[in-house]
Design brief:
Layout lengths: L11 H14 L13 H13 L2 E2 H7 L4 H13 L3 E5 L7 E5 L1 H22 L4 H19 L2
Antiparallel strand pairs: 1-3, 2-3
Helix pairs in contact: 2-4, 2-5, 3-4
């Protein structure tokens, strides 16, 4: 593709980044005022809640955060009583993370926000189009993970 025919706004990476930013605007975890959680904390809470029990490294990877961002979010969520750390039996230096009862309640609110955000993003797509989009994104993810 020559630079004359290149359209930045039609490139996959530009479009995905723009969509991610627009979707993030609808993920205002400040709506969960009683929990006072940041965007990164909301993602960590969602990942732990969905997977039940994970290590800090697994949480950071699944939440698409770097290790330091993930660690800061975990420390904050532990301090707020939303997640708990349990030492792993096979490695005394490692911890498993899980939701507390209070964390489970906030997780349900986070899930509601994520669901609402997804509904807004996909409301004009038919069920078949939504499934096609997910399938195509999975293929792209597979291509990038296995490159």
């Amino acid at each position: 593709m020559s630079s004359n025919s290149f359209n930045l706004e039609d490139s996959l990476t530009y479009k995905l980044h723009s969509l991610a930013k627009l979707i993030d605007k609808h993920a205002d975890y400040a709506d969960i005022r009683h929990a006072r959680i940041s965007f990164a904390e909301g993602r960590v809470l969602a990942v732990i809640g969905f997977n039940n029990r994970l290590s800090v490294l697994q949480v950071a990877k699944k939440a698409n955060l770097d290790k330091s961002q993930g660690s800061r979010a975990v420390v904050s969520l532990v301090g707020k009583g939303l997640i708990e750390k349990r030492q792993q039996k096979q490695d005394a230096r490692a911890f498993d993370l899980s939701l507390t009862e209070k964390g489970r309640l906030v997780y349900e609110e986070v899930v509601a926000l994520i669901t609402h955000r997804n509904e807004i993003a996909m409301r004009t797509l038919s069920a078949e189009e939504q499934q096609n989009l997910i399938n195509l994104m999975n293929k792209i993810q597979h291509n990038l993970e296995n490159n």
